[in-house]
Amino acid sequence: MGYCYQLGEQGKTLATRPLGKELRADLVGKAVGEDVVDLNFSGVLSTSHSFADEFVARLAEEVKSGEVSFELTISNASPGVERVVRRALERRGVDLPLLV
After folding, report:
1. 79 confidence band (pLDDT: 50, 70, 90)
2. 42 DSSP assignment
């Protein structure tokens, strides 16, 4: 399937724009050469709007613009996390498939 980025290893609650920026840079560095990257939210109970915007939505923009060369999927997001992520994506006008 490609590369799986385990967000649950970062904690049960993911919050703040600086953390989102840090994890996005970490992911992009680790996913070099991958075709598909799965953002696995297993174990994550909640995320802030600012984290979802900076990490997921901005990464989705980079995929759309071609700044990064992989496709994104999302897996194992709780309903609350999925709602926050979808809202962040909508605000930036980007979409990606969510796998549950």
Report:
1. very high
2. T
Is the residue at 30 inside a domain? Answer: yes
Domain assignment present for residue 98? The answer is: no
**Inter-helix orientation angle 17-30/58-65, to 10°:** 40
Beta bridge partner(s), residue 25: none
Average of pLDDT values for 69-94? Answer: 94
Question: Which two structure tokens, joined as six digits, stand for 30?
Answer: 């680790």
71 forms bridges with which residues in the sheet?
36
Give the Cα separation of 79 and 100 in Å (integer).
9
How far is it, in rounded angstroms, from Cα 73 to Cα 96?
7
Burial of residue 67 (CB within 10 Å: 0-12, 13-18, 19+) is exposed
- Number of folded domains that form the chain: 1
Q: Note whether residue 97 is domain-resident.
A: no
Domain that holds residue 17: 3-92
User: What is the DSSP secondary-structure string of 68-81?
Assistant: S-SEEEEES--HHH
